[in-house]
Specification:
Distance between the termini: 37 Å
Largest sheet: 2 strands, antiparallel
Number of domains: 1
Shape: globular
Radius of gyration: 16 Å
Number of helices: 5
Structural class: mainly alpha
């Protein structure tokens, strides 16, 4: 990796982690289902879907992928917090909540990525 690549990755990661931190400061819970990580994961994957379309449509330099996809979206979304919350639900014998937590994070994140791509393609359609 070259110095500029590292700098772009670091800038994207800084902003992604900062947004995630801000979005997870106040704990949001629906019954016993934690929502903060779900919100950042769905938001981040939606933005990644938008970026993927723009990246290809505008033939962007690969450095933008380091800045936005890997740096920003990678730091905004959080597998480690998702895994920690999932393990805590299992530790507390909240099996149904654990299943809903896993299915919503994975399902809605994939759906958000597809939705971001689809919406962006529709907006940019000739």
């Amino acid at each position: 990796m070259k110095g500029m690549d590292v700098a772009l990755l670091a800038v994207g990661a800084f902003f992604g982690a900062s947004v995630r931190y801000a979005m997870t400061q106040s704990t949001l819970v629906f019954h016993t289902l934690p929502l903060n990580v779900l919100i950042v994961n769905v938001t981040g994957t939606f933005l990644l879907g938008v970026f993927v379309v723009l990246f290809h449509r505008w033939n962007l330099d690969a450095r933008y992928a380091l800045l936005v996809a890997v740096g920003f979206c990678g730091s905004l979304t959080t597998m480690s917090s998702f895994a920690l919350e999932s393990a805590a639900l299992l530790d507390n014998s909240r099996y149904l909540t654990w299943a809903v937590h896993v299915l919503t994070n994975v399902g809605l994140s994939i759906g958000a990525l597809i939705g971001g791509k689809t919406l962006t393609q529709a907006i940019l359609a000739p």
